[in-house]
Write the structure tokens for this entry.
Amino acid sequence: MSAVLLSGRELAASVRASVAERAAGLAAAGRPPRLAVIIATADQGSAWYVRSLERAAGAAGIACDVTDLSAVAPAAAVSGIRGTLAALNGNPVVHGILLQTPLPGGARLAELASGIDPAKDVDGANPVSLGRLLTGLPAFAPATAAAVLALLDYHQVALSGRRAVVVGRSAVVGKPVAQLLLARDATVTVCHSRTADLAAVTATAEVLVAAAGRAGLIGPSYVAPGAVVVDVGTNATADGGLAGDVDPAVASVAGALSPVPGGVGPVTTAMLLRHVVEAAGRF
């Protein structure tokens, strides 16, 4: 068996084209969409992502303003984040706000993200947004979680009634992905670092989502023959590349597998931009 490739590049291009068309319409109506990004650490991976997001936003006709607090001492950076969020919340020309992680030492995402206006919370970081998602009320899901579902839909993967396993319980990916799968009538199990005999649990999945942040964690023995595997991992390698949470050898067992890079990643950026134009359209 050789797994079908669940590429995200074509889907991402389609979403970006739709976003650009909608952004142009909003601009013509006097509401040009604008995203504000706050970055507060010198993490190179985060800096790379923010630069790529700026380029993608510009190409789609979305203004992207970056507040860089990475050179500020941690305590001052936290204070700066709070003040910047308050200003952005009250700025009517800003439609989306993204607080980039990682955060300064000692800072908690849930605490700081609670300062983002839920109407502008385009990456679903505010606990209010997550609570609304849990209860089925309108809210922006975290972009990566939304990208997982969009990728499955694009490749026509059925979810209703299927056994799904999510490896990872973060508020950024694992928990919201599990909730989105539940909303689509999948039967969902969430695994984490203390799950006993992880391979025995993941091998029950018809749809397996790996979002643990550990390179190569999911090997062939963890996957049921024919399962659909979505790899959310973006782990830096020694040569400057990216490795997923799934061992590439899984392709010999799985029925379908998303690549890293080129799977969930490009769709995540596209979904974030979609959320920005959706937010701008509500103002």
Observations:
- The chain is about 40% helix and 15% strand.
- The two ends are 50 Å apart (CA to CA).
